Amino acid sequence: MNIDMIRAAHGRIADHVRRTPLLSSPFLDDLAGRRVWIKPECLQHTGSFKYRGARSAVSALTDEQRARGVIAFSSGNHAQGVALAARQMGSTAVIIMPADAPRMKIDNTRVLGAEVVLYDRAAGEDRDAIGAELSEARGLTLIRPFDEPQVIAGQGTAGLEIAEQAADAGIGRADVIVCCGGGGFASGIALAFEAQAPGLRVRPCEPEHFDDMTRSLAAGHPCRNAAPSGSLCDAIVTPVPGQITLPILQRLAGPGIVVTDDEALHAMALAFSRLKLVAEPGGAVALAAALFHHDTIDGDDVIVTISGGNVDADVFQTALSRYAA
Amino acid sequence: MNIDMIRAAHGRIADHVRRTPLLSSPFLDDLAGRRVWIKPECLQHTGSFKYRGARSAVSALTDEQRARGVIAFSSGNHAQGVALAARQMGSTAVIIMPADAPRMKIDNTRVLGAEVVLYDRAAGEDRDAIGAELSEARGLTLIRPFDEPQVIAGQGTAGLEIAEQAADAGIGRADVIVCCGGGGFASGIALAFEAQAPGLRVRPCEPEHFDDMTRSLAAGHPCRNAAPSGSLCDAIVTPVPGQITLPILQRLAGPGIVVTDDEALHAMALAFSRLKLVAEPGGAVALAAALFHHDTIDGDDVIVTISGGNVDADVFQTALSRYAA
Q: Looking at the partner chain, which of A27, A108, A309 has a beta carbon nearest the beta carbon of B111?
């Protein structure tokens, strides 16, 4: 896993992904006490950065592998990314999703042409067994959501863009807060910065009680979350850091930052009013960190990702009811 | 009023405005029965395209005019644009706003450094008299919201961008539906297309009962709205087309399209779920036209503007409650 793979992924996918802009708002600057720059991957195809990694992975397969089809496990955003990438590249996708994933994500994955297989996460159904059986029967290629080099390489293309955009904005040194589940997005971006923008430092950000990456970075070894689910930030809840992603972040990232679900909802309301963007809870944690944990951040500038916007209307309305001024 | 003024405005403001992307969603394509391209000016500074015209106009003043300050009448989006442009360029702004404008727009205009003077639109208070008195007393330069060549020139820079982006997307011929109040945005874009993309045709879009431009284009002379206010689409409610804008649109635009407030709310809910964008009602009428009036549109592609996103949370929640699936 290295920068050459990210550059190669960029070459394969640059004509297909959206180069999302770098946004800002004087109102958010005032709240944060420094200049806040936002990379809105909610505007990416399928509403999250996951399309980058999915497109990278599907485009790295052989024609024969694509003809047999792909399979993925996902609570939603990786699912949609894989479904669209597979459809665009003449492949087919089977997606194994938890039955309690947001309805919008399940519906969208189906409409994007994937075959969706639901499992009961709370009842302890073994998604890996379900997936292994299907893969063997049909010869499907598994596309892991984060612990997969070609997926990390695709996510890293967002880091190449941030590096360029930060240079254009005159930002030499800054913390870059990245919404973090298994660490695919954060580690891809960190590798891109190592090569292209050494003054930028990734800070992984996670929801309270699901801060396995933050604790693992502090402890120096993998730490597991106590519960498998139960955060509003469903998109970035994973049981344990990836075996590929954790060492990359140990080497390159700063300390993790942990925010509450309420802080994520508050950040969603501010993204609504100040940026005109729809963020999902897991996609808003990095903005929440910049706005509500600014004493843990260094420098005059901070860059945050909004990693996705696939949120059901009732959750969004909760955020507005509680926090929209 | 000509293309040279638009190109000159582009030269003055291109380093300051956001070049907004051209977005799309397969879900919206399915609903519309053709490819739908979205120019999201809700992502522009201050949340609407109005910043373009304001920056253009303030940058066209002499240093002495800027030192004395500017004045504008606006229900909100022009106000914010002028306030920010004036502050950025070392000038000061007085904004005369109706007291029933959305609270967010009034608050933001103040926070952006402008002096806000409220008047009672329903009680018939004469904003022009208020403005004339202030202007004379302080030597302020009036920046009209649409019937002002340098403002139209600024709005036209969005047309230059659309012309380039359409060419990049391989779109040769298409209707371009533009949210229309007094016609500054529509006429600026139409002039840009005349010079740069003759296959693109502007279609002004208005809310029901406030369709003065649509009726004026059909009648061949200026027609006035019956009521001064009363639409959810407050941003694009004007009493009568501009004296500069109407002749431009008579020469260059196709027929107007009229949508209901409910269709605008429905389009807002779809912009939320499918584009992850916050549109205000007046900013969503063009998308509503593409989705719900597709029999009045020609061609395989349609381009729509989302002209602004400055909407109070309660109105946005109404849209989600009624129309978010």
A: A27
pLDDT at A200: 98
pLDDT confidence tier of residue A294, bands split at 50, 70 and 90: very high
> CA-CA distances (angstroms) from residue B280 to A108, A121, B62, B76, B309?
25, 38, 34, 12, 4
B chain contacts of residue A277, beta-carbon cutoff 8 Å: 43, 276-278
B312 CB-contact burial (10 Å; exposed 0-12 / middle 13-18 / buried 19+): middle
Q: Could you give the C-alpha distances from A52 to A176, B20, B84, in angstroms and in order?
A: 19, 21, 35
List the beta bridge partners of residue B119. Answer: B98
Give the Cα separation of A25 and A38 in Å (integer).
9
**Domain A3-49+148-322, CATH:** 3.40.50.1100
Model pTM score: 0.95
Tokens standing for residue B93 = 């702004």
Mode of pairing for the β-strands spanning B141-142 and B70-73:
parallel
Chain B CB contacts of A47 under 8 Å are: 276
Task: Pick the residue from chain B with its C-alpha nearest to A38.
Answer: B43
For residue B23, the chain A residues in CB contact (below 8 A) are 18, 43
**pLDDT tens across A225-276, in order?**
998 888 898 888 888 999 999 999 999 999 999 999 999 999 999 999 999 9
* A139-150 pLDDT per residue, tens: 999 999 999 999
The rounded distance, in Å, linking the Cα atoms of B189 and B200 is 10
Residue pair A72/A51 in contact by the 8 Å Cβ criterion: no
Q: How confident is the model at residue A93 (pLDDT cuts 50, 70, 90)?
A: very high
Distance CA A4, CA A287 (A): 30
Q: What pLDDT sits at residue A98?
A: 86
A118 pairs with which residues across the strands?
Answer: A97
Cβ–Cβ of A272/B313 closer than 8 Å? yes
Q: Answer whether B104 sits within 8 Å of A23, measured CB to CB.
A: no
Q: What is the mean pLDDT of residues B143-157?
A: 96
Mutate to test the interface with B, among A23, A39, A276, A307 (most CBs of B within 10 A): A276
pLDDT digits (tens, 9 = 90+) for B187-201: 999 999 999 999 999
- For residue A216, name the pLDDT band (cuts at 50, 70, 90): very high
**Per CATH, domain A51-142 is 3.40.50.1100:** yes
| Nearest-neighbour CA in chain A from B173: distance (Å) | 23
**How many residue pairs from chains A and B have C-beta atoms closer than 8 A?**
75
A106-111, Cβ contacts within 8 angstroms, sequence gap of 24 or more: A106/A76, A107/B325, A108/A46, A108/A47, A108/A80, A108/A83, A108/A310, A108/B27, A109/A76, A109/A79, A109/A80, A109/A83, A111/B27
- Chain B residues with a Cβ under 8 Å from any Cβ in chain A: 18-21, 23, 26-27, 40, 42-43, 47, 84, 104, 107-108, 111-112, 269, 272-273, 275-279, 309, 312-313, 316-317, 320-321, 324-325
Question: What is the location of CATH 3.40.50.1100 in chain B?
Answer: 3-49+148-322, 51-142
